[in-house]
Structure formats: structure tokens, C-alpha cells
Amino acid sequence: MNISIITIGKLKEKYLKQGIEEYLKRLSIYAKVEIIELPDEKAPENLSDLEMDQVKQKEGERILSKISDDTHVIALAIEGKMKSSEELARDLDQLATYGKSKIAFIIGGSLGLSQDVMKRANASLSFSKMTFPHQLMRLILLEQVYRAFRINRNEPYHK
């Protein structure tokens, strides 16, 4: 399985980089995982709705340019479907079973994802009704993907 995490914004925090590196190492025995970092669109603090849409549109174009036609896309969005770890594991297992070997998880910038990205997504996933920093979501997502592989192989993992 080839998993891409396509994300807007650079990761600066050393502690997050270390956690991400650890989960990438753990995941390497199960899947090829790559993180594609795309630059965020520079914008002033107070934006109109139109300006917000323009920022999301530009970031969305960058995201979509990294997705091939045969990729199953899962957008991380607060309005997405909440799942348990076991449900995510089952979803990933079913994708593999039915020949979907390319999966891309999309993490938007601070304003979220464009409508075009949401339309391209095959599914949308929410980790909570709370808002998390998109840099932290990388680590949380990698941990859950790792947990999913462990669950699917009946390997022990902390509950």
C-alpha cells in the first residue's frame, strides 16, 4: 500500500518532527508512506469570505496537482465522518482488498480545504468536533494509520 499525506504548511516544531519520524519508521514495515508538504498561501490575518475562498482555492490547486486519478482520497475535515480506530482499520483493509493501493490523506491549511478538494475526495474523515493545529494532525493521523495496520494484523497495541 502506498499512502501519501498531502499537507499545507511547513512543520517547524522539533517535537512534532520527532514523533512523525518515529511513526514513519514504524509504518515502513507495513506500507510506503510519504509526506508531501505544500506551501501555505500567505494572507493577512483578517480576510473577507471571498479572500478566504481565494486562499483555499490556491492551496487546493496545489493539493490536487499531487493526486493521480487512481488515488483514493480521504480529506480530513471537521465536518467529515467520525470513526473509531477499528472502523478506520476496516476501511483501510477493504481498500487494500479491493485493489486501492494508493491512498492520499489530505490535511488543509488553517482555513480548511477548498470545495474542489472536497469534491475530489472519496471520503472525508473527522477526528473530533474540536479544531487541531494542522501540524499536530500529521502526528495524530500517522499514529492512527499505524494503529490501523496493527489492528488489521491482530498485533498488540495499547488500547
Radius of gyration: 16 Å
Strand content: 15-25%
* CATH architecture classification: 3-Layer(aba) Sandwich
Strand order of the largest sheet: 2-1-4-3-5
Give your account of this protein's structure:
It is a single chain. Helices cover 43% and strands 22% of the residues. With 159 residues, it is of the alpha/beta class. It has one domain: Alpha/beta knot (3-Layer(aba) Sandwich), CATH 3.40.1280.10. It has a 5-stranded parallel sheet with strand order 2-1-4-3-5. 26% of the residues are buried. The model has no long low-confidence stretch (mean pLDDT 93). Keywords: Cytoplasm, Methyltransferase, rRNA processing, S-adenosyl-L-methionine, Transferase. It catalyses: pseudouridine(1915) in 23S rRNA + S-adenosyl-L-methionine = N(3)-methylpseudouridine(1915) in 23S rRNA + S-adenosyl-L-homocysteine + H(+). InterPro entries: Alpha/beta_knot_MTases, RlmH-like, tRNA_m1G_MTases_N. Belongs to the RNA methyltransferase RlmH family.
Describe the protein's topology.
Blueprint: E1 2-8, H1 14-27, E2 32-38, H2 49-64, E3 72-82, H3 85-97, E4 102-107, H4 115-120, E5 123-126, H5 134-152
Parallel strand pairs: 1-2, 1-4, 3-4, 3-5
Helix pairs in contact: 1-5, 3-5
Could you give a short description of this structure?
The chain has one domain (2-42, 49-152): 3-Layer(aba) Sandwich (Alpha/beta knot), CATH 3.40.1280. The chain is built from five helices and five strands; from the N terminus they run E-H-E-H-E-H-E-H-E-H.
